[in-house]
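Practice problem: predict the structure.
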Amino acid sequence: MTPMTPTPRACCAEYAAVSRRGLLTGALALAGTSTVLGSAVVTASAAAPRPAASVLVVVSLRGAADGLSLVVPHADPAYYEARPRIAIPSDRLLAKDGQFGLHPQLAPLVPMWTAGKVAAVHATGLPAPNRSHFAAMEEVEDANPGSTERVGWLNRLIGTDDDRSPLQGFNMSESILPASLYGPQDVMSAGDIDEVQIAAEDEWDHDGGRRRSLEAMWGRNTTTLGRAMRATFAAVDNFGPVKETSETPAHGAAYPDSDLGRAMASVARVVRGDVGVEVITVDQGDWDMHSDLGTVEWGRMNRNAKDFASAVAAFYTDLGALGDKVTLVALSEFGRRVVENANYGLDHGYGNVMFLAGAGVKGGTYYGTWPGLSEDLDSDLMVTTDYRSVLSEVVASRFGASTATVFPGFQRERVGVMLGQ
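Answer:
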């Protein structure tokens, strides 16, 4: 392949049950062996951490973002015919080439785009349509169609490293662990890195007696829970350098005052702490825009696109030179229909766009094979690039991992978005 102000409302019954912060807050829960420590959950071994040579940050745009608004196919006449009210005018687009242009609210990313640090791959998605939010999320994050094992692709990626850190996989969220991190390999999840601690170690525990009691109780326990408790003690101790990093962003970075902005600021601290975290997951919600997606002047798309772009740009500004080892991938579970509905919105569709930024990305251009659009009422953007082909290039180029292990049974096609691929 070659380069190429209304109030938000949740619209789907299955998706409306999940807020931006997820089903749970505070103490979290996850599948498999885990232990709760303050506002975090750990499933980690007791080995000492080692520095991370490469870091992958996966931002999930939850709710099915409209890729045709984020990266507009301005040269396809069907786009404007299908969206007479909500289409983005061609003269307002950024980083235009002969086929595509960026939504104007993605302006914070344009300097990185110009510098060759951001790219987009259009017409990406699952091998077959799946318009159920939760089913599609599960399928995207398992990335192993037909398997009965609930193991995510990021958990398999962690498993390819025999000399891994106990904190290699990290979920930066107050929500439940994403399916991409589910599996036998050890991971950690926290909503507030400053509150990563043993629950008993609070202001009332003046002499550390509670910690000593827990260690005495579980130190020689051979059960699964005993192992998990010992792992928790080790993980909390190893996480110390992250908590010691400054909360003040570096290099003049200014994050948006949003859930995503705060999460990305915390992710930057995790990277600076350098305790061996190599895979980090982050969520941005509220992309399910059946109504009030809006126009170029107003609407939910404007707000979400600006929030996303501002948070990612601030993240790389904050990291400075450390950004040279961090690759970011943003994707959503599926896209939206081509044709707008009566509520200034879009219903569930199929194909979508993926963004990549940072280390190893051959940016400043658009990738993928454009299938063309139809303005028929039920038309979709068809998928011409399996999303696993994009992720395979990231996995191979940044981690040297076996893509056959991370994506079982999948034969990738070349996209060319990553250096060396």
